[in-house]
Design goal:
This protein is of the alpha/beta class. It is built from nine helices and 14 strands. It has two domains: 123 residues, Four Helix Bundle (Hemerythrin (Met), subunit A); 196 residues, Rossmann fold (3-Layer(aba) Sandwich). Bound molecules: 5-S-methyl-1-O-phosphono-5-thio-D-ribulose.
Length: 344
């Protein structure tokens, strides 16, 4: 029962990739079909597909599309064409480390295969996708064990099936916990892009799970009321010391949680951990265009009004109660970081 999810962000269709256009949700459920890597890079950049693991999986399929398009058995020009498109994919979004992790795996495969690489890269992209779902199911069960009978759960952004290969990280834990017993699930709307309001509550409803949407600014009041036991979020990149980059506003929630005695669970596969990065201070934070939330009427050339739009922030390890991965959970990551999860 814990394995149910009805929403799929990415569907491989043999020789093309179907991408659910998340910009149009929840009003319109529309899949865009892609056969070239540059088009997938654009889909990542423009947030048709978003969420760290889903970005990595989309990029893996994009490399497969690139090889499928350019491979020629009788010369090696295709290698340069694929390398150029991998570079393009790497430039699509900077913060989610899953993107670089997946591209590296695909690149490595290309150096190993003899003969036609087409089947091998398609297979690897599909394996990356399936392994992500398997990791999410594992984390779901592990996270739900840790929550025990906690009643009030607040999540931020969308770390669900839409943001991953399927099932979700933070939302996977919430799904698993809810299957065991009913809980009150709160979702922050997540300004400015409204991943919570447009995606999370919709995704939960598609699986018949009820939720309550809150304005981001209502989080302190909600915590003070005693209705939240845990905040459960995903991550875009976790540094070796346990600092966590995630959707802008996560840091604010973590500070509020500390003040109100609420615990903070971060759920992420180990593909989201950047073991080579010592501290969250070194994580590049993506800045997006002012017009994502600046009212159009302020946008003239001579306007005195601009907007600052960092789309991630870094929560220091000292504010994190537990990091749940498919390789196990690290409690109080401030003590020793997450190095023990590195099995390479
Ligand atoms: O800008 P987005 O929507 O790609 O940001 C997504 C998040 O911050 C998620 O919380 C994170 O990627 C984890 S998704 C399992």
């Amino acid at each position: 029962m814990e394995q149910k999810f009805n929403v799929h962000a990415l569907v491989w269709q043999g020789q093309q990739l179907a991408v659910l256009d998340q910009r149009q949700l929840p009003e319109i459920v529309h899949y865009e079909l892609y056969v070239t890597a540059p088009d997938v890079a654009q889909a990542i950049k423009t947030m048709q597909v978003r969420g760290a693991p889903a970005i990595g999986i989309a990029a893996a399929y994009a490399v497969a599309l690139s090889v499928q398009q350019h491979y020629q058995p009788d010369n090696s020009v295709w290698r340069q064409q694929v390398a150029a498109e991998i570079k393009l994919l790497a430039a699509s979004r900077p913060t989610a480390v899953n993107l670089f992790w997946a591209l590296e795996l695909m690149q490595k495969k290309l150096t190993q295969v003899e003969g036609s690489p087409v089947e091998a890269v398609i297979q690897l992209a599909q394996d990356i996708h399936q392994q992500d779902i398997a990791a999410n199911l594992k984390m779901g069960a592990l996270g739900a064990d840790i929550l025990r009978d906690a009643q009030g759960l607040l999540t931020h952004c969308n770390a669900g099936a839409l943001a991953t290969g399927g099932y979700g990280t933070a939302l996977g834990v919430i799904r698993s916990a809810y299957q065991r017993q009913a809980r009150h699930i709160y979702a922050g709307e997540t300004r400015p892009w409204l991943q919570g309001a447009r995606l999370t509550v919709w995704e939960l409803a598609e699986d018949d799970i009820p939720s309550t949407l809150i304005a981001d600014s209502a989080a302190a009041m909600l915590m003070k009321s005693g209705q939240v036991d845990w905040i459960i979020v995903g991550a875009d990149r976790i540094a070796a010391n346990g600092d966590v980059a995630n959707k802008i506003g996560t840091y604010s929630l973590a500070v509020l949680a500390k003040y109100h005695g609420v615990k903070l669970m971060v759920v992420a596969p180990t593909s989201t951990i950047d073991f080579a990065m010592q501290s969250g201070d070194d994580i590049e934070i993506e800045q997006r265009a002012a017009n994502e939330f600046l009212p159009q009427c302020y946008a003239q050339a001579d306007s005195l009004i601009d907007a600052w739009n960092p789309v991630f922030d870094v929560t220091p390890a000292e504010l994190v109660s537990v990091i749940v991965t498919e390789r196990g959970a690290v409690f109080n990551p401030i003590d020793k970081g997450v190095g023990e999860l590195n099995n390479e």
